[in-house]
Each structure stands twice: as structure tokens, then as C-alpha cells.
Amino acid sequence: MPAPHVIQDYETSQFPTWCPGCGNFGIWTALKQALLELNIEPHKTVIVFGIGCSGNESNFVKAYGFHGLHGRALPVAEGVALANSGLTTIVVGGDGDGYGEGMAHFIHTIRANPNITYIVHDNQVYSLTKGQTSPTSEHGFKTPSTPFGNPDSPVNPITLAITAGAGFVARGFAGDAGHLTGLIKAAIQHRGFSLVDVFQPCVTFNGTNTFKWFYGKVVKLETLKHDPSNRDAAWKQAQNTDKLPIGIFYQKDGPTLADEFPVLAKEPLVDQSPTTRKIGGLLGKMG
Ligand code: SF4
User: Fold this and answer.
1) Over 70: is that where the pLDDT of 140 sits?
2) How many Å lie between the centroid of ligand 1 and the Cα of residue 100?
3) Ligand 1 pocket, 123 CB below 6 A?
4) Quick one: CA torsion of 259, 262, 265, 271, rounded to 10 degrees?
5) How would you list the strands of the sheet with 88-94, edge to edge?
6) For position 3, what pLDDT does the model report?
């Protein structure tokens, strides 16, 4: 198979069915561009998708794909990364899937620190089911499920991830695909769990958090002279709701889940003989 050299090499024959102008297009473009620039071939990439409009991307990116159960993409990806460390493992899902149904998996995957990149299409609404309040919807947000306004406070995935101990926490904006490409590249290159939460305007069901609204609010952390190695500073920046910082909030290397199993240090599990796996597993248990 010839090495990919243009972004179209990461596309299938299917053109996205998303609404015209949807923020998903910017994230789709940034992901393909990041894979291209990192020279990661489609057959060396596996993407596990959650349920939601973003999950439809499983039809539009050329890579190995698994369209998981609602909220259950992360544990599937964790298994993939452990079984075949020779693949680049990415998870693509939405805010409802990841921070609602999948919230427990979000926290516990951070604790385990498998070598996967999690890209969240965060449009602050359940869009596939036609516009109900999601975990990241603003307080007071009116939808068919909350006609008098959302009574809950929104989840802040950035502060949550930092607090839970994630080693790479970033946020991007679908309206700046070039900047987002850089974030996704850095996330894939990070060894361990990496989160890229992405502001993704839903042009059909979210009339509040629009492209225009975000253009007036987002600010790049690079311009704030933010130091991503400073966890306290990252946490403070993540709480800023007046302006909405995008970029890498926090990054720190640490042992990954695979480092806990010596059998995985030699070569990917799928390439090992059953005998090697048995002996290696015992050694791993003996620690
Ligand atoms: Fe995009 Fe919203 Fe349309 Fe879904 S409903 S494709 S998120 S614009």
C-alpha cells in the first residue's frame, strides 16, 4: 500500500452526511491532516467511535474502525491499545456520550493511563436525538427537554481531567482547524492518555454556542504565555469562562498502563506466541 501523501488518502468513498456548516467538518479535517503530517498510515490506525453525530465519522475516515456502544468507546480502545501497541489508537465521541453515559469510563480511563487519544466533539447538546440538554450545556440553556432552562451546572471536562490526573489535557475549536491539527498531533505523540476536547458548534440544535459566539470568546493559551507543565496554572485557565482558552492546558509524562505489564515491553501482544504471553503474564503478576 503506497504511503499517504494527501489528505484524501484518509477519506472513504462516503462524503459526510452532517448538516451543512456543522463543526464536525473542522474536526474531521484536523484529524485527517494530523494523521497525514505524522505519517501514520490508515492500516496502522484504529479509531473507536461513540454514539452521536460524531460517531457517524466511522463511515468517513479511512482507518480500522469500531462503532461502540453509547458511552463505552474508551474501554474498547483501552483493550485495543493493550492488545496491539503497534497501532495508533484514537477515540472519537461527543459530550453526551463521553461526559454523560461514559463519565465513569472517562475518569477510570484517565486513572489507567492507556496510550490512547480521546477527541471529544463537544457541541453542548445531544444533537443526534434532536437537541436535548447534554452534560456540558450551559445553565439556563433551553431545549425541548428543558423548556424553562437547564437547571444543572455544566460539567467542565478540562478541570475534571486535570483533577483526575490526566497527563495531556487540551481544548480546541472546530472553527480553527489549523490550530486543532497541532493539538491532535501533540496528543497522538503524547505517551499515555490524551484528551482533546473540541468546541464544535451544532448549527442545527444549538443557537447559543454558535461559531460567531465562539469567535468572540476563544483565546489561544500560547498568547497568554501559559506554561503547560504548571498544573495549578492549567487548572486556573480551565476555569476561565469569561474568555475560553484553547490549546494545551497541561502535559506531563508518566507511566502508562502498558508499563505495568512487562510482557508488553518486548513487542505487541498480538505478535507474541501463546507461550510468551503466558510467561510474560506471570512475570507481570509477580511484578
Ligand atoms: Fe452537526 Fe448538529 Fe447537524 Fe449533528 S445535528 S450533524 S452536530 S449540525
Assistant:
1) yes
2) 18
3) yes
4) -120
5) 64-67, 45-49, 88-94, 117-122, 194-199, 168-173, 244-251, 218-220
6) 82
Q: Is the CB of 18 under 6 A from ligand 1?
A: yes
Give residue 266's pLDDT.
Answer: 82
11 φ, ψ to 5°? -105, 155
What span, in angstroms and rounded, lies between the C-alpha atoms of 226 and 221?
A: 6
Q: Where in the chain is the domain with CATH 3.40.50.970?
A: 7-256
pLDDT at site 97 = 98
Going by pLDDT thresholds of 50, 70 and 90, the confidence category of residue 287 is: very low
- Among 25, 27, 53, 130, which residue has the most ligand 1 atoms within 8 Å of its CB, making it the best to mutate? 53
Fold topology of 7-256? Rossmann fold (3.40.50)
Cα 2 to middle of ligand 1, angstroms: 34
Segment 65-87, tens digit of pLDDT: 999 899 999 999 999 999 999 99
Summarised one tens digit per residue, pLDDT across range 97-129 is 999 999 999 999 999 999 999 999 999 999 999
Ligand 1 and 205: CB distance under 6 A: yes
Pocket flag, ligand 1, residue 251 (CB < 6 Å): no
Ligand 1 within 6 A of CB of 125: no
Q: Where are the alpha helices (DSSP H) in 40-121?
A: 73-83, 95-96, 103-112
In the numeric block, the cell 465562539 is attached to 214
Length of the chain: 287
In this prediction, residue 274 carries a pLDDT of: 75
Beta strands in 16-69, from DSSP E residues, in sequence order? 45-49, 64-67
Residue type, 50: G
Residue nearest to atom 2 of ligand 1 (CA): 202
Q: Is the pLDDT of residue 189 over 80?
A: yes
